[in-house]
Write a structure and sequence with these properties.
Blueprint lengths: L1 H13 L1 E3 L7 E12 L14 H12 L6 H5 L19 H6 L1 E6 L35 E4 L2 E11 L9 E8 L5 E5 L1 H5 L23 H19 L15 E2 L6 H8 L5 H6 L4 E4 L7 E2 L5 E4 H8 L4 E5 L5 E5 L1 H8 L3 H8 L10 E4 L6 E6 L1 H11 L7 E3 L15 E9 L2 E12 L4 H19 L2 E15 L3 H8 L8 E4 L14 E4 L14
Parallel strand pairs: 8-10, 18-19
Antiparallel strand pairs: 1-2, 2-19, 3-15, 4-5, 5-6, 6-7, 9-11, 12-13, 12-14, 16-17, 17-18, 20-21
Helix pairs in contact: 1-14, 2-13
């Protein structure tokens, strides 16, 4: 951990006196970077003892999307107590932004005039026969199969491997109704109607499979496609009265399964659907649409669908200091902030002045409010597994719209993940860094997060890069800093993770073991609030 000691010494010797929000005062530098190779050992400060219980439980708390200190207190962690309100709430801080970044918009309904189902094919239907070879006398003749009539348009020979002069007789055929062409057909298949038209309406009489798709896409998406068709066109389906019975239909393009597969892989949240298939489903109701199509659908989580389909009305909560939070409905607001539904409803109805000091009002003027909840951790996992070369694998805590509602604005603002040579690296940008008290926690926390994500996505840990904006020593930490610099660091320990954990959300405190951690005694210092 020489890099950390060098930073402390650099700021102690070169830092500029600077006033700060807390009123304590700092020695500050602007811009600094440290790099830790996680293969050299776990980057834990050894010149004073770190409280790893706090580091691990705080990280697990972040990953749960929690922003109330109850979990921390239940596990003997008090590092956030100074900022929590009387109910233990901190507002939408790190965990909330990592797992539940909210967006509420007034969405213009996308209603489309219903059309009769008609399969669209990319083929011309004109029959053009090639009579240059017709030894079997079949070119131009028509035959029947279970999926429609077809004409033989061409005859040719395919060379045999061991007898190139002879060759196999092969035929090209074209279906009359759809224009679909198929070559390399045997004489037996042609004469006995064994050829199938993948564009014939064999699914519920209105849809078809189309061109071949990847096996993994078929396994993931076929039931979604068939279920959509049944709701719209199968009068015996339980959901038909609320779908097809009310005019809901499928676009002609999506009547072809291969078209459907091609399009839905371009919709928002596709990689999340691919990685968490049971949590995400195709949704047209976000746009209040009567049609399933690429312009009216997206993949949404169960939580998002429940909020958007429950007729919740957006509610604005106004804090005693004037801060405002808007959420989709009273119940979600209460779950997040620790309010009671009765208290909030009484205030909305004018029966109670405030609830825990807060006032509440329904948001007016939104005709079709819709909520999106962005789970950044899930998105990172999905990108690392399915698009690891992406330069957009970002974890962002700086939600400008909600800063005023946070008990403490995020210090570690943004992390970017990077894959090369089978190793996962992470770079953290920290806008404000309390070098003595906070930075050792931050290094250990993000190094551990990198190792956890690497394990569940199939990579080895690479580097942790720590980049600072305002890196500072508080003036009431200077003596403690000098004491720490007088100590010689010990060798780095090793962090072991339970190899059986395969989901980032399944880690528990007992899944971590810090081996051979040797440190100097704790150095106490006051925290600047």
């Amino acid at each position: 951990m020489q890099q950390y000691l060098d930073l402390m010494r650099h700021v102690l010797e070169n830092g500029v006196r600077k006033e700060d929000r807390t009123g304590v005062g700092t020695l500050s530098v602007f811009g600094h970077q440290m790099r830790f190779d996680l293969n050299d050992g776990f980057p834990a400060v050894t010149t004073k003892k770190l409280h790893f219980r706090s580091i691990i439980h705080e990280l697990l708390w972040f990953l749960q999307g929690d922003s109330n200190v109850k979990y921390l207190r239940d596990n003997g962690v008090t590092i956030w107590d100074e900022w929590a309100d009387q109910n233990g709430n901190l507002g939408p801080v790190y965990g909330h932004q990592w797992r539940k970044w909210h967006s509420i918009k007034d969405i213009q309904p996308r209603r489309i005039q219903r059309t009769e189902p008609k399969i669209e094919t990319p083929f011309g239907k004109e029959i053009n026969c090639d009579n240059s070879s017709n030894e079997a006398g079949l070119v131009g003749r028509r035959f029947e199969s279970s999926t429609g009539s077809y004409a033989i348009t061409k005859e040719y020979r395919v060379s045999r491997k061991n007898s190139p002069g002879l060759g196999y007789l092969r035929f090209e055929i074209q279906f009359l109704e759809t224009g679909y062409r198929k070559d390399n057909c045997t004489k037996d298949a042609v004469l006995h109607g064994k050829i199938k038209d993948p564009y014939a309406p064999t699914v519920l009489g209105v849809a078809c499979l189309g061109s071949p798709v990847l096996k993994e896409d078929r396994e993931l998406l076929y039931q979604t496609w068939v279920g959509m068709l049944k709701r719209c066109y199968d009068e015996h389906h339980l959901a038909f009265p609320n779908y097809g019975g009310k005019g809901v239909f499928v676009s002609n393009r999506w009547l072809v399964f291969s078209n459907f597969v091609e399009d839905v892989k371009k919709l928002p949240n596709w990689l999340l659907k691919k990685e968490f298939p049971h949590e995400y489903s195709l949704d047209k109701d976000y746009y209040s649409s009567n049609c399933y199509s690429s312009d009216t659908c997206l993949w949404l989580s169960k939580q998002e669908q429940n909020l958007n389909q429950s007729n919740y009305q957006p509610v604005r909560a106004i804090a005693p200091d004037g801060r405002e939070i808007v959420r989709m409905g009273v119940k979600p607001l209460c779950r997040e902030m620790g309010f009671t539904s009765i208290g909030v409803f009484n205030n909305l109805k004018g029966k109670q002045g405030t609830h825990h000091g807060w006032r509440f009002e329904y948001v007016q003027g939104l005709h079709n409010p819709r909520v999106r909840i962005f789970d950044q951790i899930r998105n990172i996992v999905a990108l690392l597994k399915h698009n690891p070369s992406s330069r957009r694998i970002i974890l962002n805590s700086w939600n400008v719209a909600e800063l005023e509602n946070m008990a403490l604005s995020p210090c570690h603002v943004l992390a970017q993940f990077y894959v090369v040579n089978g190793q996962l690296s992470c770079q953290l940008y920290q806008r404000s860094a309390d070098i003595f008290l906070g930075v050792p926690f931050n290094i250990a926390s993000y190094a551990l997060l990198t190792m956890m994500i690497a394990q569940v996505t199939g990579y080895q840990p690479g580097d942790f890069v720590h980049t600072f904006g305002d890196a500072h020593l508080y003036t009431n930490h200077l003596e403690q800093t000098k004491l720490q610099l007088s100590r010689d660091p010990y060798p780095l320990p090793t962090m072991k993770l339970n190899p059986d954990v395969t989901s980032i959300f399944d880690f528990t405190y007992d899944d971590f073991e810090l081996v051979n951690y040797r440190s100097h005694p704790t150095i106490k210092a006051p925290i600047a609030v």
